[in-house]
Design a protein that fits this description.
mainly alpha, single chain
Length: about 300
């Protein structure tokens, strides 16, 4: 068999698609553009389907009665970066821990250090539980009205979470009260009240709002306020409709990749062949549609 049997002769007639590809000035850029365009189109379809079906909560109404279920009528709302959220959470934990360290220090053998170790544990539990359980999971999952069972469970979880957080902060406040009363009893030479310092949970359950010192009241107000701030940051950590922010970010990433592919290898449009120009026009039109979709839902003819 001759070695050049499979070599395509220059004057051999090729299929139209092969002939057009041979005329391409930058085959690698054309392949990259086609891949980016395919991914962007798929991500756009995902976003449009998410809006129609509320993330799969309802049947796809694209070909059915569109008035039955109103699709999502707004763009996704989420922060550009989560650095600020994490910074605020860390600040809350640190500040609350340092403030509570003063409240707990009187009853600790290690003084301020021992009080800080106790306080930072309470603060971390208070802030993280409020952020994740109440805000991120509870309040966000209550927003999808088309998932009534999940929204109901989320609402119940929010109520339980708030009750647990209030109980946690009341227990910490009663612990501060018991530390103060225990220290006063020891200073007066008594010992009958010493054992009560070990039962702040019982005290908080039997007499929840019977706080006796100003420091205990301040501790409770501080803890509940920081829990509310943490819950709010958890609610705004991503879009209120679970999954909506994620599908939008994936489309934004695909759109950026498509824009880069349009800019790479296509500097001089006057030198492009007809197939290349058609690819560019199609990709540009797709990018324009994606930008309009990311801005928010719109009526389509």
């Amino acid at each position: 068999m001759p070695l050049d049997q499979n070599i395509i002769e220059p004057d051999l007639e090729l299929r139209p698609d092969l002939a057009e590809f041979r005329e391409t000035r930058a085959p690698g850029a054309l392949i990259q553009l086609g891949r980016a365009r395919a991914i962007a189109r798929a991500r756009r379809d995902d976003l449009l389907k998410f809006r129609r079906t509320w993330g799969g909560a309802v049947d796809d109404q694209q070909d059915a009665d569109k008035s039955a279920i109103k699709p999502i009528d707004r763009a996704a709302i989420y922060p550009d970066s989560h650095i600020l959220h994490f910074s605020i959470l860390a600040t809350l934990i640190l500040f609350e821990g340092l403030a509570n360290a003063y409240f707990f220090s009187k009853g600790s053998d290690l003084g301020l250090l021992g009080g800080w170790l106790q306080a930072i544990t309470v603060s971390f539990t208070n802030v993280i539980a409020a952020f994740f359980l109440v805000g991120f999971l509870g309040l966000r999952h209550m927003s999808n009205r088309n998932r009534p069972v999940l929204a109901g469970l989320a609402g119940l979880g929010v109520i339980v979470g708030i009750a647990v957080l209030v109980m946690l902060n009341l227990t910490a406040a009663h612990f501060r009260d018991l530390l103060e009363l225990n220290a006063a009893t020891l200073a007066l030479g008594g010992a009958e009240a010493t054992g009560t310092v070990l039962t702040p949970v019982v005290e908080a359950r039997t007499n929840p709002f019977g706080l006796q010192t100003l420091e205990a009241l301040l501790l409770f107000v501080l803890g509940t306020t920081f829990a509310a701030i943490a819950a709010f940051k958890g609610r705004t950590f991503d879009d209120a409709i679970p999954g909506y922010g994620g599908v939008t970010r994936r489309l934004e990433t695909a759109a950026r990749d498509l824009e880069k592919a349009l800019e790479t290898g296509w500097k001089d449009a006057r030198k492009l062949s007809q197939p290349e120009l058609e690819e560019l026009v199609d990709a540009k039109n797709l990018l324009d549609e994606i930008c309009q979709d990311l801005a928010g839902p719109r009526e389509r003819s």
